[in-house]
């Protein structure tokens, strides 16, 4: 594996120092810069072109949501991982909707942080079942009265649009992604190889015009393909 370049964006210098110490202990990861606010993060991403940005969502001035949206639009090859203090955080959820490829708590274990960076740098996304459940709960609370019907209408509209282009198996894969299953877990469920699942995932993302698995999860919730219990 070639080296992974990482930009740290957080308004707390001690946290940036801690992340740097953890990451630079890895042979394949290099911290190429630090920014203390979203505007600087966007500017440094443009100049440094890191593989991964660790992005705090709650910062003064340009927040992490705005910065993430700008980075995804301007630097599609750079992946963003949202950092937050709380696992049920509307800011973090908005960051995922803006195009982030992952969501981590700031007190995550070092091994999990490193693994997440390697995962998104390889082109995948960090979506755990716990986080997808939290996302669904939050999306449900944000829906106004009568939204269950609206969600059904959105699902029907999507079925007539991009979803109609999916094969039955690709639809099954999309539902499994929305549950937060890994390629290996999807392969086990559908009795196919991981290579086959990876091919299906790629086709699903391409047909729906989605950036990665995180966006597939958001899409499934917002269209009502998956609804609160």
Automatic annotation (TrEMBL):
InterPro entries cross-referenced by the UniProt entry: CheY-like_superfamily, NreC/VraR/RcsB-like_REC, Sig_transdc_resp-reg_C-effctor, Sig_transdc_resp-reg_receiver, Tscrpt_reg_LuxR_C, WalR-like
Keywords on record: DNA-binding, Phosphoprotein, Transcription, Transcription regulation
Residues modified as 4-aspartylphosphate: 56
Record has Nucleus as a keyword: no
Boundaries of every Response regulatory domain copy: 5-121
Signal recorded as keyword: no
Domain named HTH luxR-type: residues: 159-224
Xref: Gene3D superfamilies: 3.40.50.2300
PANTHER family reported in the protein's UniProt record: TRANSCRIPTIONAL REGULATORY PROTEIN NARL-RELATED (PTHR43214:SF24), TWO-COMPONENT RESPONSE REGULATOR (PTHR43214)
Protein name per its UniProtKB record: Response regulator transcription factor
Organism per entry: Occultella gossypii
